[in-house]
Amino acid sequence: MSSNLSHEWSGCFSGLLAGSRRQRSCQSVPLQEESAAPLAPQESSHGKTLPGEFREGGLPPPYSWTTSEKDHIPDVMKTIEDTIHGLDHELRQLSLDIHDHPELGFEERYAHDRLTEFMSSRGFTVTRQYLGLATAWRAEFRRGARGLGRIVGVNAEMDALPGIGHACGHNLIAMAGVAIALALRAALEKHDVPGTVVLLGTPAEESGAGKQILLERGAYKDMDVCIMCHPVAGDTLELGFISSLALQTLSVEYFGQPAHAGYAPWDGVNALDAAFVAYAGISALRQQIRPEQRVHGVISGRDWTPNVIPDYAKMSWSVRADAWGAVEPLRERVMNCLESGASATGCRHQVVLGERYLDLRQNPVLAEDMALAAQRCYGIPSYWTEQPASASTDFVPLPALHPIFNIPTPDDAKNHTRGFAQGARTEAAHTAALRTAALLARTGFRVHADAAFCARVRAAYEAGGAKVGGAP
Ligand SMILES: [Zn+2]
Ligand SMILES: [Zn+2]
């Protein structure tokens, strides 16, 4: 991976997602025991009929509660909540501790040690420095013989941003991951269900695509589903299920020949011209790409001065589309433009492919299960959109659930600001993260306990999600 791309912050879609969220009022209802009956359609704040205020902007497949839901879930939710409440103080300390020690991607050594120690002390089987990454780790709990039951994966991001610390709230993500894993273990034990929980410490989400490296090295290959959550700024209680774009970064260098720009320009080979010809080609290309696709980049150079023909230029580009399968042909069209700059000017050029972020598609069956539970347990509405946000994250091609939840921040400061970093250490953010963790643990448990539900999850993935994730 090209190190010159490391500053570009390709990942982390949440800041842009925050801007795409709709404003809505939220009416909280008292905590109530879950009912086995499906929610009656109700009038949403937008005047549409939505079960649990869920279907606006998208249409997950029809879904109804099953017998196993009736049998297991209410008791299981109590187990999950009791477990998380019992750990509340320790989880709060864990989150604040990580917040107090912000570390950039692939440098999350403090978080690595703190989190692996924590999981090890709770009886999980911990692998430190997992798969050759110094700050990746894996914590596993298994109930029953190996191969028995299903495997639920949970991601714990840990990285911060330069200068502004945990301004994306990954301390909350790490803590929520721990809470989900411990709650799932408690539920498997108490309700006697076989299965495995794998909590992955995933480095470098903001830049570096740590999960993609782990994916390519096999970290996700056995998982049936993978879940996590991410905070965004907001005062209302709500959950969002939003997809994100697939992304490829690349850079190109042009190598020419310097010459006196006035005295003998014919002796020169102009690398800056090569970059501008290529840029113009891409600008023309952008008029003929789909609305959800993006190609954006910058030109840089060295030792440029007007009276010397530049012999070096560099461009860095990002190519985004709603699915990885669409990124590849678009990338080839961009490469043709880069080539045209070289051939038009006689420069030599070299292209380096950088980070690759696969598209994130929320699994509609998992999402609807969580959304309905959020409404019933906590009175929290959810929103769903199949239109990807115009940003990317380094998620993995699996049946996945990656909700965003709101935390209050000073002046509604968005992700990647100092204000958001302040918000990420408040009691309110802590409570919101743990509430989301409880709901995710509940849906994760359902994957463990309900074979028919898991089959529907898989079928939805095969029908929609599988084609977009693509094989790495
Ligand atoms: Zn971020
Ligand atoms: Zn983030």
Characteristics:
Amidohydrolase, Peptidase_M20/M20A_hydrolases, 39% helix, 6-stranded mixed beta sheet, elongated, disordered C terminus, dipeptidase activity, alpha/beta, 472 residues, disordered N terminus, Alpha-Beta Plaits, single chain, 4-stranded mixed beta sheet, binds zinc ion, Peptidase_M20_dimer
Description:
Residues 27-68 are annotated as: Disordered. With 472 residues, this protein is of the alpha/beta class. The chain folds into two domains: 3-244 and 363-469, 3-Layer(aba) Sandwich (Aminopeptidase), CATH 3.40.630; 246-357, 2-Layer Sandwich (Alpha-Beta Plaits). Helices cover 39% and strands 20% of the residues. It has twelve helices and 16 strands. The protein has helices at 14-20, 67-86, 88-100, 109-121, 170-190, 210-216, 271-286, 324-345, 364-378, 418-423, 427-449, 451-469; strands at 42-43, 49-50, 125-127, 137-143, 150-157, 195-202, 225-227, 230-233, 239-244, 246-255, 294-301, 312-321, 348-357, 382-389, 400-401, 404-407. The strands form four sheets. A six-stranded mixed beta sheet has the order 3-4-6-5-7-15, sandwiched between helices. A four-stranded mixed beta sheet has the order 8-16-9-14, with helices on both faces. Helix 2 (67-86) runs antiparallel to helix 11 (427-449). The radius of gyration is 24 Å and the shape is elongated. The two termini are 15 Å apart. Residues 1-8, 14-65 and 465-472 have low confidence and may be disordered. The chain binds zinc ion (ZN) (2 copies). One zinc ion binds at residues 12, 14, 168, 206, 415-416.
